[in-house]
Amino acid sequence: MKEDFCIECRKNREYKIIKTPYRKKIRGKTYKFSLSSAICQYCGAEMDVDGIIDLKIKEYDEQYRQFENLVSIDEIKTLFNLYNIGQAPLSLALGFGEVTISRYLIGCFPSKTHSNVIRSALKSPSFMKSQLEKNKSKLTNSAYRKAYHTACELEKIFSFSDKLRSTIARLFNNLSEITPLALQKLLYFCQGYSLAIGSAPIFPEDCEAWPHGPVYQEIYHLFKSFKYNPIDDDRFIILNNSKDALSDREKQIIDLISATFGAYSGKTLETITHSEDPWKNTPLNSIIKKSLIKKYYKSVNQKYDLATESGTNKYIKAKLKG
Predict the structure, then answer these.
(1) How many domains does the chain have?
(2) Is 0.90 surpassed by the pTM of this model?
(3) Are 211 and 91 part of one and the same domain?
(4) How far apart are CA 141 and CA 273, in angstroms?
(5) Which residue in 288, 275, 285, 281 sits closest to 187, CA to CA?
(6) Nearest to 279 by CA among 221, 219, 212, 218
């Protein structure tokens, strides 16, 4: 346990960091915060240890933003990294004052209106393009061209449906880390289960029969350009901030796939898809018809009851046994 000087005991004492409730009224509204305090283990007094004030300020900032659903400082930093634009030009492009973004980065809280504009730019390159066009006269040609070109590129690589975006975001929220190979297979299983259990696809995109199994080409090209762990890439925020376009039934299917197939590596999932009729009966580099996927998984569902984890796990074990 760490030690520091306790002004009550007048000597060095061991202390423990605990969460302490605080109430604070801001603009006429009372908030309940839970902030870290260093407590003397001998007398119980609160101690002023190194770094505790900075920690409290950080916790206060984060919790207030959560209470009011305001963008975080990290989200704002991601925004100007995402669009390859400086703080002042970004502020002008969004329709704010020139120093507004800089003020937000040093801890000033954005208004709800500004926060919503920033969030819209984070989740939609098309929205960012419209803002750049609207405020073009306020920007230098260089700043406008760089940001607009980046927005166009992002719009192009994120051109797939909101349903597919939401499916990918939910898979990552459920599983944290997913390799590109595993992601392709999990999307395929989500689609197959949706066709079998609910008789309709979750998303409209078609997959193709590639040598390593079913592949959604748009997602392949997107994640090919990402870092090894996609959630570390600034562009991942576009997926994570996408509007939730999924029904409750679709969420249940994605969660079921995450809890079962999500426990296996991409190579293991590849082994499963290689043994299934839709991939085996489709020429390489051709679209795997949704009708084939539906027919196959409906027959599997009759035998294994795919709507349950136990049924799905039985199916996985049977396929891996060969």
Answers:
(1) 3
(2) no
(3) no
(4) 50
(5) 288
(6) 212
